[in-house]
Amino acid sequence: MNIFSILYNLFIGPLEIFFEILFSLANKVIDNPGLSIIFLSLAMNFLVLPLYKRADAMQEEEREVEKRMNHWVTHIKKSFKGDERFMMLQTYYRQNNYKPTDILKGSVSLFLEIPFFMAAYNFLSSLELLNHVSFGPISNLGAPDGLLTIAGITINLLPILMTLINMVSTVIYTKGLPLKSKIQLYGMAIIFLVLLYDSPSGLVFYWTLNNIFSLVKIVFYKFKDPKFVLSVLSSIVGVIGLVYISFINPFATMRRQLLISILLFMLFIPLVVYYIKKKFVKVEIKEISKTENMVFYLGIIFMTILCGLLIPSAVVAASPEEFINTMTLQNPLVYILNCFVLAAGTFIVWFSIFYALASASGKRTMGFGMLALSGMAIVNYMFFGKGYGNLSPNLTFDIKPVVLLKDQFINLGIIILVITLLYFIWKKKEEVVKAIYAAAIIAVVCMGGMNIVNVNAAVSDKIDNLNKLQAKAASIPLSKNGKNVVVLMLDRAIGGLVPYLLNEDANLKNQFDGFTYYPNTISYGGYTNVGTPGIYGGYEYTPKNINKRDQESLKDKQNEALKVMPVLFDENNFTTTVFDPTYAGYGWIPDLSIYDDYPNIHRFITMENFYAKQNNTLAKEDSFLRLNRNLFVYSLFKVSPLVVQPNIYDNGNYNGTAERCNKVATKQTLFGISKSKGVTSRFTTAYSVLQNLTHMTKISDGNKGTFLMMSNNTTHEPILLQEPEYVPSFDVDNTQYDKDHKDRFNLDGKVLHMETENQVTHYHVNMAAFKQLGKWFDYLKENDVYDNTRIIIVSDHGHHLKHFDNFQFADGKPYGDVEKFNSLFMVKDFNSKGFKTDTSFMTNADVPGIATDGIIKNAVNPFTKNPLKNDLAKKGKQYILFTEWSVTKNHGNTFLPGKWITVHDDIFNMNNWEVLEDSE
Q: Cα(595)–Cα(585) distance, rounded to whole angstroms?
């Protein structure tokens, strides 16, 4: 992060985000990019109107002062020279309370226009949504208009029209002004013509609308009471709009009609404000006290620290390693720093600019407004919006946030109560307000500082280790003559999807030749921290047995489980390799040092290695910019009232425009269940590992056996893929394929529900993983290492997707879908043929016993010396634990209390499931 980006985020970044949010909201309602540009222009111009009005007044004041002093200034300059002239001018300026720097007041409007222009230019010129979109006579808003062709020469008419309107405004505005003011404004008009002549017509259209607004403003300020005229006109537009949507063109949904009605009602606000001020405000406040100034500035400092430090640092501190971008190996603190700069730009820079240019009464209103905003923000952050589920490093929740109407009213009621209380304190005891702010600032600084210290301590060593590890090229050694064993853990792979995957793609059954599919399989937990120990270590590492060893940490027991199979195979003279051991060292990025005592065990971190190499520059840039932007908007989401939180969240897009992303994107925006834009980086980084399995495979002719244990997150990162290949694409449109193959989810009368985005995207990533594994299996067959390889594919848990009827618990809790505990389990043994289904009751803790069966005689856990194969362990009730997923929170000696669930024999018989009341 360099000084230029810091300055950009201080002055331009907040405006650009505001532009993007306004445009995104408008386009969701209007669904027309051209009309959305008009809305953006109107909204921005009305919002900054007080700024420009005050700037014009300051210019007028400066011109009057110059005019008044001009006679004597001219006389002094003619009569004196050198130091004497300088001293005389300084004395004269001082007598008239004039400073030479006051000349800058004449350029305030220009200084304001530059950042708004830069924000608009950067946003609209890179908005791909405008490409090939027509609006009126403009055929393509994403390209120069080219409206006029003369003698084979194409002329862009819109920039010329923009300049002519600007010239007309200048003629009216500068009437009676000195020549230098006219030259400045005419020069600016020419500069904008040159800058924008070859720009996308959408951008030029926006700036033309701004010039029209400016012209109208200049004309109306010639009226005796311009505020009244503008207020009436605004209200007339609102009436016309409401009549239009109500009687002429009703929108498709009540929600859209409600939203646009709210936007139109906002046009009545100027008239209401005008009437209130005219009726009730009798005395204009001349100045405000230092205490009132102090209250405002303490407010913007508090909001900056809350939204720029505490909230983002709390998000990152919840799981610091997940925020290490392994493409860039940046410390996650850079995201917090960037968020702080954006917050400072929003509150300290721009709020201060509005405040500085406001009248005394405006300053008083803004002072209390900031106090009310601060009170609302802390109430919302501390006490509301807590039940949205797990937050990923992409800042998306597992389940779309839904806020009950009752909770919205409670939230609004408490906000009103708090603001009312603050108002009375503000009116009676301003010194108390200062003390409250001081205490609050100290508190948020301390909490944010502690988060930063914890984040840095958690990631500094990891980043150093990653730098060393990523230099090593991962490889999969396989033997043609020895026995090979592969254990592949696909995080969150859904066991129940397998028949449907094979039904849609018949070639998969041939590629998975020799596999036995076990649909009647459970995991011992709903999350990775509980579901993986049994996979790697066997039945000694089920949650019940782990909790019995309460003198050892969960971290040590996880590490031990991860070492069971690699150490055992290593001790039995197998070439042993480990990829991405899950939660090794109880961190998101595996700590490979757990194998340091076993130098013959080859270990690698493959996460993001291939993706980073293939898409290095664009991936790094887009990943950084998107998360920086969304982390700040997430902070605004957390401090907002519940009634608007779902709209700010916007399905995890935070009202960003996916069309601005590079073709290598880090976030996907869905448009229903068949269309999307963008590609989620967390999927592509995992998927690229599966794509490169053949590249990594190194086949030898020796007799020495091999063992590979690897995990992969492809199935954990749901996104929409391009059918029927199921590959990532920036622009996905499966509309026709879904229509032509709508019956593929009905298998022998058993329907797989595919109505929601979550259901569809999880199906897609499971299909993508199977297709890539199928290609690898074909490669193994071609190179004669398939028959002598035992392959186990397993998942740590499923997910609550409601894909199947009659597969949910009655209480409907987060654990209420059996699909969450139905893990994928498939085994291909040596020389096995055909694809089979076996409904025997299995658990994912069967993996170590099956992996060693027949090739390591009497295989025992190398640490406890107990047999790995234990068929008796799955007799009777099996205890599943649903508890806290985060290893940064759930890291004691035993798992945190949760909900215990039992099942036996047949997971498809809901009578075999029981949710226990005891949560210990």
A: 11
